[in-house]
Design brief:
single chain, 214 residues, mainly alpha, 3-stranded antiparallel β-sheet, two-stranded antiparallel ribbon, 6 helices, elongated, membrane, transmembrane, Sarcospan
Length: 214
């Protein structure tokens, strides 16, 4: 049996704690806050104009990050066992790692779409026509593509508000992507920091010490 003063037990406890708490807690809280922010902002953007595409209102990225955070909270409720000795603990850890990777990809895509739309918005020339805002990249080109934003009575307020929302989406999704990347790194390090190709170091050291004594 392991005592409280056992250094091995202390190392195992420290390996799954961070700042005095179990290490997924900080990431789960950050992911939940960022996921809710991205989701709410995405739905607000969808309410500006019905013409905005799903890729331009990345509430889907926020929902994925929220799901990741919920899995992190579930992992906190599971009793810790060293080396993933329980099937439930291993499954939840694997789900958290994979979903964090999926959240990372989704947030990076959201940043890319928002940045592309923002760059287009900075070059638009817009006019209000029949309760819609019609924008062009090149007004001198008669065959140029026209971007139409429905349900917009004022192009000036729409473009300024949409630019602000796109900037916020880029910042929030970038932070969320970094948090998901950090979560993946910590999960990977926590799983393999005391292993080398699946073999512990201390049994080899103990065996070597016994051989030397003989």
């Amino acid at each position: 049996k392991k005592t409280k003063g056992d250094p091995k037990t202390g190392q195992e406890e420290e390996s799954h704690t961070c700042c005095g708490c179990r290490f997924p807690l900080l990431f789960a809280l950050l992911q939940l806050a960022l996921g809710i922010s991205v989701t709410v902002l995405g739905f607000l953007m969808a309410g500006i104009s019905s013409s905005l595409l799903v890729r331009d209102t990345p509430y889907w990225a926020g929902i994925i990050v929220c799901v990741v955070s919920l899995v992190g909270f579930v992992m906190l409720c599971i009793s810790y066992q060293p080396d993933e000795k329980t099937c439930v603990q291993f499954t939840v850890k694997l789900m958290y790692f994979l979903l964090s990777a999926l959240g990372l990809v989704a947030c990076v895509l959201a940043v890319a779409f928002a940045a592309h739309h923002y760059l287009q918005m900075t070059k638009f020339t817009c006019d209000t026509i029949l309760e819609s805002c019609q924008c062009k990249l090149d007004t001198t080109d008669p065959l140029g593509r026209t971007f139409v934003y429905q349900d917009a009575a004022d192009c000036g307020s729409l473009t300024s508000m949409l630019n602000l929302y796109l900037l916020l989406q880029m910042v929030l999704n970038l932070i969320a992507a970094l948090v998901c990347l950090s979560a993946c790194f910590v999960m990977w390090k926590h799983r393999y920091q005391v292993f080398y190709v699946g073999v512990r170091f201390y049994p080899l050291t103990a065996t070597g010490g016994q051989q030397q004594k003989v």
